[in-house]
Every structure is written in C-alpha cells, then in structure tokens.
Here is the input.
Amino acid sequence: MNVVEPIKNKKDLQRIEARLALRNKRDLLMFELGINSGLRISDILKLNIKDVRSQTHIHLVEKKTKKVKRFPLNQKVKGLIQSFIEGRYDDEPLFKTKFNNRLDRFQAYKIVSKACKDVGIKQKIGTHSLRKTFGYHHYQQFKDLAILQRIFNHAQASTTLRYIGIDQEEIDKSYSSFVL
Here is the structure.
C-alpha cells in the first residue's frame, strides 16, 4: 500500500472544492465529508441516505476497527447533505454511480486523485488523504493531540503525529532552524 499525504495548504483545499463543485454534488459531498469527519473512505461509502437525513450526528460502526463512532456534522456538511439527498429514498446508498450502484473505493480514489491533479497538486494523494487532511488541520487548529488520538483510535500519540505528517514536519523545521 502506498503512503499518502494530507493536503496541508488550505488554498489547495479551496481549489479542490471549487473544482468538485463544478463537477457534481456527489463528488463534492464525498470530499467534504472526508475532510470534515476524519472517516475512512470505506465508512463514508457504506453510508445510506437514512444515515444522514435530518441528522445532527452520524452514528456508525467502523468497518476496520468494529468500534462504534458518533460525531456531529458541521453546518457546511449538513447543507451539502440536505441539497444532495433531496428527493431520494432512505434505503439508497448515499454515494451511487450513474448506474445506481454503490460507489466503490477505486472510483472514489479516481475522483479525489483527478480533482487534486486538476488543480496542480503533485504530492502523493489517495482517498486516505481525506482522513489525514482532517487530522492535520484539526491538529493545527486545536493543538490537542489527545483528542485527535481518540478520534482516530490510535494507541500512541506518536502514531497520530506521524500519521498526519507532523513528526517529519517538526523534524525538518528543527533542522532548518539549527545552526552551529
């Protein structure tokens, strides 16, 4: 498995959002849900309309860990969901292909990868970049490693720092600032 990076530049995030907004609501919602929730793509793609309709929180059992996860939806994501699910049935997958099948990981990867490429992002990007992007920006905003560690269900704080790319960033910064 390739190691992917978070999208650290907020201007890049805005450019991706603008690009996806031009493409379609589905792709934009998938991206926004990923960067605003920290969910794995496998958990995002298994959501149905009933899981998000009129909800303030999302409740699910994580596919990988089998742990229960509950978190609130922010206003940005709630607005996108409302607009996207209008006229749809509760038992439908939230993210469907044009053939009415549930979107899969590979299709999600192509969506994220193409959007990043289209706006000139050259770093290693994959669907897991959405989760890492959430973690990176959550850490930058709150500087609360303990909460982020719990959100990600990591046993060690060092794992969380390495996961979101802070470890190497801080090492590089210390090298750059060190002069004898």
